[in-house]
Amino acid sequence: MKILSLAVAAALVAAPAISEIIKVPATGDVGATMDALEAAVDQAGATVFARVDHAGGAQSAGLELAASQLLVFGNPKLGTPAMQDDPRAGLLLPLRVLVYEDGEGKVWLAYERPEDMLGALDIAPDAPYLGMMSGALAKLTAAAAGS
User: Fold this and answer.
1) Closest CA to 94 of 37, 31, 137
2) Residue 147 vs residues 14, 40, 85: alpha-carbon distances, Å
3) pLDDT at site 14
4) Is the pLDDT assigned to residue 8 strictly greater than 50?
5) Nearest to 100 by CA among 43, 136, 60, 58
6) Domain of 60: which CATH number?
7) Is 2 inside a domain boundary?
8) DSSP secondary structure code for residue 73 in this structure
């Protein structure tokens, strides 16, 4: 029984942490909300690397998907220190925000908390850039939510 308990405990420690997904309700449609998010990112001085239209991709494959777009963006002043602390952060950065329409027609902005997203890496949980990333994501999504 002791061996089983140790095995279960080891499995729980080895299991990746479940990241919290922050959801922010939006007043506009997916396109307008994404436009507002992209404008907010530009105004904040961050770089937009990509805007991915998931629904458009599905349509090009002959499939249906509710409106859904992903914005990939970042700021080297925040991302570089994370990658200096642990180069594997480059697998998770730049930041991403998904704007999507749910099954009830409600539009949401969604993003992963940087503290959770980078938490399994060799990054101190109190690294200043984590709070700065979280603050930026909260401000940017709040600005876009009222579009």
Assistant:
1) 137
2) 42, 11, 36
3) 41
4) no
5) 58
6) 3.30.310.70
7) no
8) E
E strand intervals along 2-147: 21-26, 47-53, 68-74, 95-101, 107-112
Residue the block writes with tokens 């937009």? 48
What length is written for the chain? 147
Is the residue at 5 inside a domain? no
The gap from C-alpha 73 to its chain's centroid, in whole angstroms, comes to: 10
Per-residue pLDDT tens over the stretch 52-69: 999 999 999 999 999 999
Q: Say how far apart CA 75 and CA 95 lie, in whole Å.
A: 9
pTM check: above 0.90: no
Tokens 């907010």 correspond to: 40
